Amino acid sequence: MSQKYIKQKKLTEKEMFDSLVTNAIEFLDTSLDNLNKKPKNSLVDFYTSIELFLKARLMNEHWTLIISKPENANLNNFQNGDFHSIFLEDSIKRLKNILNEPLSDKIIENFRSLAEHRNQIVHFSHTDYSNATKISIVAEQWSSWHYLHQLLINKWKNIFKNHLQEISRINKRMLAEIEFIKAKYEELKPEIQKKIKGGAQVVGCHHCKMDSAVIGDFHKWGIDYDCMVCGTKDTFIKAVQDVIACQKCGHDFEFFQKGLTNCPHCHCNIETNMLIDECEKIYLEGDDWWEEGSPNVAFCHECNLERPSVFYIDGLWSCVSCFDRGWQAINCQGCNEFIIGDIDLIEAIGCHKCRE
Q1: Which of the four, 16, 159, 262, 272, has the lowest number of CB atoms within 10 Å?
Q2: What is the pTM of this model?
């Protein structure tokens, strides 16, 4: 038996739940404290709090749900804190498959994006965050907090009722940081106007939501932009005018829209699986490299959806889960899955499916 270096007081399930929530709130506080001096640490702490809140929701149902291998669960070890807990992906799966409380596609996409940035910061040199500033991190966390906060005060209100006062306090701190972004925008307005007068095209940034994104290079898959407020460098993905029929009302609508959550006609909820189901009926072929009889729907390396979600639409491989476009689709030599991504990277070390 391996030696244990940390001895922990034996806790009841309720004490463990409260401890998880308290830890999550403390990580949020630390995240906000670090925004000025250590922005990368701030993002790591913020993501950790999300994982802890999801575990707390699962644990409220049963303590074994936060253990990586429930079949090896031991109550005595659990109460002493001697166990391996799950991470984001397993939390998402167990919320859906065991509690029948699936997170929406938008929430999953957002949390996964934050997880990817966190992993890059912790395990590698994250080029996007090598010179991270407070404002770039605030913009990254803004939408994540919106989703998490709505879960805590609405859907899971009764579960976290004893901690709502602290959650409200954190929300006020987050809103203060949003005001910081708005103030930064007002400060930069004269410079933004100079850019416009000089011939630059400036539009709304997808991240900080300010009208401060300076249009850059044009590609077949979209337009690059550089935000003057939050410093984000990203791409406006080229739109697709193709339509599919709503499964409920039968009316056609333009489906390739990142912010689309409801049918514009009957307002029923639009889920990723429905989009995939409909696209499988329409998009039956791939590009010039695709051979008849081969898979024509690829796995996405951006959103890591369990189901293939990338179709060849309007001349580009396009994911109907995260709405990313423009990557090449190939069969990975490591696992033989049909997947999109950086071909050189996939050929060198394998795709994300190989590394799961």
Answers
A1: 262
A2: 0.59
